[in-house]
Specification:
- With 250 residues, this protein is α/β, with parallel strands linked by helices.
- It folds into 2 domains: 111 residues, Cobalt-precorrin-4 Transmethylase, domain 1 (3-Layer(aba) Sandwich), CATH 3.40.1010.10; 131 residues, Methyltransferase, Cobalt-precorrin-4 Transmethylase, Domain 2, CATH 3.30.950.
- The chain contains 9 helices and 10 strands.
- The strands form 2 sheets. Strands 3-2-4-1-5 form a 5-stranded parallel beta sheet, with helices on both faces. A 5-stranded mixed beta sheet has the order 6-7-10-8-9, covered by helices on one side.
- The protein is elongated and about 55 Å long.
Length: 250
Amino acid sequence: MSARVFLIGAGPGDPDLLTIKAHRLLQSADVILHDSLVDKRILALAADHAELVDVGKRCGKHSATQATINKLLVSYARTGQIIVRLKGGDPMIFGRATEELQCLQAADICCEIIPGITAATAAAASLQHSLTQRGIARSLHFLTGHGAEGGLPKHDWVSLTRTGGTLVIYMGSQTIAGLASHLIEAGMNPAMPAIAVENASLPEQTITIATISTLPNRLSRPTGPTILLIGEAMGNKEEAAVAAAQLVAG
C-alpha cells in the first residue's frame, strides 16, 4: 500500500452540504480528479497547489472513458501524493465506484471512501417530502433511467409497481416517456404523483410537479442533473410547491 487515495462524494452541489471530512481532504489534496458536474465553488475549496483534473463523463459530449480514469487514478496514486477522486452525489450510488475501486485494489493501492449526500435526499429536503411515510411508502427504490447499453434499462416494472413504495430515478430525464409507459402498462395509476427536480440544492433548482402520465410532456429538456421521484409519498403537490419555493427564496 504505497499511496493515499480518497473517493469522495461532493454531494448534490451546494458546498454547505459537503461533509467536514470531505472539506478537509479537499484542502489537503495534491491532485483532484473531478466530475464535470461538481460545482465550481466546491473546487475552489482546493489548496492553491492542487492539480485539478476534469475527468467528467456527460451524455453527448466528449469526455474521459472509465478506462482512462482508472489509469489516471493509478498513475497519480503511484506518485505518493494525496489523491482525491471527487464525484457528484454519493460515489456508491450510480457513481461507478466499483470499477475504480477494483482497479486500485489490483494495483495494490489503498483507497478510502467518503460518502456524500445523494440527489434523492437533497431533492426530498427541498420539497419537504419524506421519501418514506408510515402507511404510505414502506419501501424506497433507487433506479437508473440510463443503462450502460444506452436507453432505458430493463427493470421488473410489475414488481416495482406492486411494492407501493417510492421510486427514485437517476439519469431518467431522457427516458421519462418510456419509463412512464412501462410503469402504467405494469399497472401503475396514471394519476400517481411524480416530481422532477433539476439541480437539486442549487440556486438554479427547478421543480416540475405532475403525475406519471403527464410528467413526460411537462418536463422540458433539462440541462442539469435531474432526479425523478414517483409515488404516493410525493402527493400534496400544492404543499410541495409552496415549501420548495419558500426554501429557494430563503
